[in-house]
Model the fold of this input.
Amino acid sequence: MNTVRQDVATLGSGWNNKVLLNYALAMRELDKLPITDHNSWKFLGAMHGFDRQLWVESNVLDDSDPVPKDLTNFTYGSQCQHGSWYFLSWHRGYLFAFEAIVAAKVKQLTGDDWALPYWNYLNNKNPEARRAPEAFLLDTLPDGSPNPLKKYPRRQGFSTLRPTSLDAFSLAAMAENDFQVGNDGSIGFGGGVTGNFAQFARWTGDLENNPHNTVHRLVGGGEGFMADPYLAALDPIFWLHHCNVDRLWEAWMNTAGKTMVRDPRWLDGPADRRFIMPVPGGAAGMRFSGRDTLKGGKLHPRYADLSIGTGVKPGVETVTRVSMGAPEQQNIEPIGANSAVVKVGSGPVRTRVDLDPQATNTGIAAMGATAPGTPVTRLYLALESVRGSAPSPQLEVYVNLPEGVDPYLHPECHAGSLTLFGLNVASRADGGHGGNGLGYTIDITDLAQRLTNAGDFDPNHLRVTLVPGEQITAQKPVTVERISVLKRSGIVS
Ligand SMILES: [Cu+2]
Done:
């Protein structure tokens, strides 16, 4: 049985892509099942996020449809782990369950084997890589019936991922050597430490912010399902996107010099409960934890390729960034913060972050260190408790932008682009985490170095300007509780 996941672009175009045709045929059948069935399209989508009222308003459910208890009591419903170190492991299990259920249906309908393909949108060698596979854009199946792969709305006129120069895709996450750093895991590839189960926890990992969050917003816009975690997994393209994110994680783990597990709690999952997924046939669920998703585990996937479009060459010693030593021997300290909540609505907002000049100067002096055994530092801007009501607003972050200028004319001050995917869920006071919002870190080491070289870096403070992108308006503002600068110190190894 062929269960190797392939690049969807290599499998043929339109409905000649048999993997996607089989996908569509299976989804059409799974759509006939009621939400009470663990193998139904709706049930599988609701596992990511579920809000009955929104689903009725969005014409997914009828008002009269009975909703199963195991969705509303969180046994299966609204499980997706974001802003957390379980983001990648939970979604790996989710992909596995979905793939098994679809494959069983494909087998029953056509006799074919089936594996979930990935959308390799970062493949620079394919000029069409950012265009959605055609099967997701066609109105009908070859037999003339409605195309299930295009059932739910996306950004108006969507066919291609179109980031601008600001929210450009970045593979910077792949250069990070550590899955987590800091006691709270606030810095690193994979997301912040959470003890208990939390749908939206606190710190977003590098890979989750970009390209994961970016692609959700670029497909979904403000109105499409992919932009909102309550609806995203209902769009069949969700699964090809997440398959690629999962592949990026696998590629990262297969690169020399990366530290995946340093805190064994990650291996066993949340302290208060196990992750659970449905299985084909819909009987009892399958329980799993992080260790099942790693090499040798029952949920470890196989990919046809781990190098094209991932920015890494597995098995090859690629020195992408100097190693700062074992994560537990690294130190994270705040060296300054702003003093008031920042609210971003219709236009750019400036705030001042006061710095400890001595700590800043020593940090700047060690930023470029490469000699083994010498101290090395990186600087980060941390945005804490970011809240708002839009599903995936875009926020642009600038450092030391001159006052009164057009930010777009000053890319040299651009620190980073954030897509605040799931901000609506993370900000709900009745949600799992009491509306604490989300946290993000932006690596500003290179920017600080550039500003220092240009004589534009004052060790006493820096100015941060937040510029609203799409989905942020005066009616739907975003607030940031605190902005601080973190200094990460280690020893070059
Ligand atoms: Cu996602």
Observations:
- The domain at 8-293 is CATH 1.10.1280.10 (di-copper center containing domain from catechol oxidase).
